[in-house]
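Translate structure to sequence.
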């Protein structure tokens, strides 16, 4: 998930996607080399990524049906997959020049210069095509992939690896603070940090078995977000949300119902803050001090991705399509006209 460069979106990151983006936990299957074999009955398309464009434009990346676009705030959708060779989309991002990018499971990065009328693969330099997160910072496009972090200065035409110091190359989340320090969230090895101008990443999370109580366990990090005050928020797969006020040197947890949550995305910066989990959405109206469920109308509670507009509108991508709220999460309604149904997996097994 996940489009920090969009002028219409607040600070949001989804752990595929967080923007952002995010994955569902599907049971492992045995006896088949194809991870998508035996998918079961038809179901509404699983939305793994959401990104906001100008005005009422919304992009939705699905797991199995490619990218959908809405130009009326999600009321109606149209599939926009001309040029795609992989319809399993992890992340969608709108760049500062309105170029739209999509990261996929097996096809790498796709780019459209015309609002989705046609897409082109832009993978030169990528060692492994699995791309789970995309973000912009000061004119540079960054990709978190199955083979680490890559950057491009020419809208993806050529990628350069940036992996010195990384011991885990499956990068699920990226964030950059106001000082240019970059953070990478990984699967199994926690978070890595690289200061501006540095060439080496350093791991800032210790072993799960020996971590002090004020440290972040080295687990599956799905989402990273930088707050307005510089605080770093990390959403994990099985330990909820952690917060650091000193660039990752020490951590504190957000307790309550979020303590052991499987976090898929974090959005902060507006009047209300949101955390999307595998069992629903949580909202805070006091800058993260307290959290409460905000699921009225959400018939699908497995939140895969979400995006928050500056007008307070929130879109949630779930295992059952797109939901929307216009009253700060008090009430949700399904908005899937044009997305339809598909014999589709619930989401990637991460």
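Result:
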């Amino acid at each position: 998930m996940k489009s920090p460069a969009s002028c219409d979106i607040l600070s949001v990151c989804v752990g595929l996607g967080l923007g952002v983006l995010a994955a569902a936990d599907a049971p492992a299957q045995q006896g088949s080399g194809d991870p998508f074999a035996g998918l079961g009955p038809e179901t509404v398309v699983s939305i793994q990524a959401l990104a906001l464009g100008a005005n009422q434009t919304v992009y939705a990346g699905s797991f199995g049906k490619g990218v959908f676009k809405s130009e009326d705030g999600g009321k109606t959708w149209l599939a926009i997959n001309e040029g795609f060779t992989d319809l399993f989309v992890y992340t969608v991002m709108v760049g500062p020049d309105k170029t739209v990018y999509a990261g996929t499971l097996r096809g790498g990065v796709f780019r459209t210069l015309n609002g989705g009328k046609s897409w082109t693969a832009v993978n030169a330099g990528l060692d492994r095509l699995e791309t789970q997160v995309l973000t912009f910072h000061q004119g540079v496009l960054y990709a978190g992939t199955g083979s680490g972090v890559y950057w491009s200065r020419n809208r993806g035409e050529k990628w350069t690896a940036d992996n010195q110091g990384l011991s885990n190359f499956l990068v699920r989340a990226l964030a950059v603070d106001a000082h240019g320090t970059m953070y990478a969230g990984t699967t199994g090895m926690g978070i890595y940090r690289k200061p501006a101008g540095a060439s080496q990443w350093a791991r800032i999370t210790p072993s799960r078995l020996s971590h002090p109580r004020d440290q972040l366990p080295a687990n599956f990090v799905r989402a990273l977000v930088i707050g307005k005050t510089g605080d770093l928020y990390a959403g994990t797969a099985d330990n909820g949300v952690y917060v650091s006020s000193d660039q990752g040197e020490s951590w504190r947890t957000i307790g309550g119902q979020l303590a052991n949550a499987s976090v898929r995305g974090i959005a902060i910066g507006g009047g209300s803050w949101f955390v999307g989990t595998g069992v629903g959405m949580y909202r805070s109206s006091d800058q993260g001090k307290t959290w409460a469920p905000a699921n009225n109308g959400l018939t699908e509670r497995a939140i895969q991705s979400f995006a928050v507009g500056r007008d307070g509108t929130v879109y949630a991508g779930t295992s059952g399509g797109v939901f929307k709220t216009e009253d700060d999460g008090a009430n949700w309604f399904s908005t899937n006209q044009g997305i339809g149904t598909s014999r589709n997996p619930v989401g990637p097994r991460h």
